[in-house]
């Protein structure tokens, strides 16, 4: 029998605000424990929360980018449960009136086809503190308590691990474009709970689901789903029932393990938060915010293909990050060849950044300077190996490519007379290789080109060297 899977995600995203959701404490990551705290985020009795307007705005913007209906009236609720990292014994969240409803995100599957993954809702809530366990004691860091989160809940529309991964990657791309979240997984900016179930193909009702809690890497979600779906299918095939339970992913062992069953599940006894006013948004306010939205990744890819004539693959790589796309467009505008700009950024620039753990915003070379370098290659003033050398210098200290080439005497030698002399020298010095070439060994020419390049200290125009060698040897 064939089985099909249904996967739904609950993604918690840290919103990019300067301060926490209900107090003025900063949201900076990595500060010493319990240094960014106050009576509100420590849950002191009587402390009064005040809503951070930026958190509401960023959530509404996310909803607009994801095609949600923005709820003109939403409210905050208390979700009651006890946990040591949550000092109030309740979390302020949203229950029956979330900020955003419906919407969806279209994913591209590995085979290139598209699929819409529907969203149920997006609501805002506060994060909790962080438990830390030492050799013989435990501590709690409340710096993270009260950090604004947005929870994006999907319908169970994903059918396999690949689709879940594509959804998470697409979501991250959009949220970064919109400046909603840094989406830094290492800092826990994006964490998700994964619900999955299996059912015989064609069965209308969903199977019993299990939940994987607090996954903080995309690779983990993918690996956990591969294992969990196979486990569920094996259970059902052996005539056993799937228990509705919370499981955890053991990354090292590559398996999921039961944590607690539904019998122990919480009843949160939600009720309206009496210390916060409902969030009432006028259409004018929503429209005003909507005006600040950037072009979305999908639209940008299409426009870059249209405006710059670059291949779809290039547009995909460059537009994956808004800052990289900006850098490319600025370079292409200053340069003579958009395709050359794309090649340089995709290969040389991005590889260099990755190697040094830098972002495009930290690069020393301005788009105009990179375009200057590319134009020198296009004009055949310098050859490619020299250009890479100049690039290294510019990467380290910035500067103008033409000036570096001039100061270091790197300009390509395209004077046929000067090159001819070097070609003669190379032929005279390598009689055996010359004989090989004449005997039909085509690869020998490459060696001779290399010798001439060496004699010119890398400055000869390789095309010209090639032509002259062929002519002489013929
Ligand atoms: Zn605080």
State the gist of this model.
The protein has about 475 residues and is α+β, with helices and mostly antiparallel strands.
Helix and strand arrangement:
Elements: E1 3-14, H1 53-65, E2 69-70, E3 73-74, E4 77-80, E5 90-93, E6 100-101, E7 104-108, E8 114-126, E9 130-133, E10 138-141, E11 148-154, H2 161-177, E12 190-200, E13 210-215, H3 218-237, E14 245-250, E15 255-261, E16 271-272, E17 279-280, H4 283-290, H5 297-308, H6 312-319, H7 322-334, H8 338-355, H9 367-378, H10 384-397, H11 401-408, H12 416-429, H13 431-438, H14 443-455, H15 462-473
Helix pairs in contact: 2-3, 5-6, 7-8, 7-9, 9-10, 12-14, 12-15, 13-14, 14-15
The chain binds zinc ion.
Describe it.
- The chain is an alpha+beta fold and 474 residues long.
- The protein folds into three domains: 3-287, no CATH class; 297-408, no CATH class; 416-473, Orthogonal Bundle (Arc Repressor Mutant, subunit A), CATH 1.10.10.410.
- The chain has 15 helices and 17 strands.
- The chain has helices at residues 53-65, 161-177, 218-237, 283-290, 297-308, 312-319, 322-334, 338-355, 367-378, 384-397, 401-408, 416-429, 431-438, 443-455, 462-473, and strands spanning 3-14, 69-70, 73-74, 77-80, 90-93, 100-101, 104-108, 114-126, 130-133, 138-141, 148-154, 190-200, 210-215, 245-250, 255-261, 271-272, 279-280.
- Strands 1, 2, 6, 7, 8, 11, 12, 13, 14 and 15 form a ten-stranded mixed beta sheet that branches. The protein has a three-stranded antiparallel beta sheet with strand order 5-4-16, with no helix packed on it.
- Helix 2 (161-177) runs antiparallel to helix 3 (218-237) and helix 14 (443-455) crosses helix 15.
- It is elongated and about 90 Å long.
- It binds zinc ion (ZN).
- Zinc ion binds next to loops.
- Residues 20, 23, 25, 37-38, 40-41, 146 line the site of zinc ion.
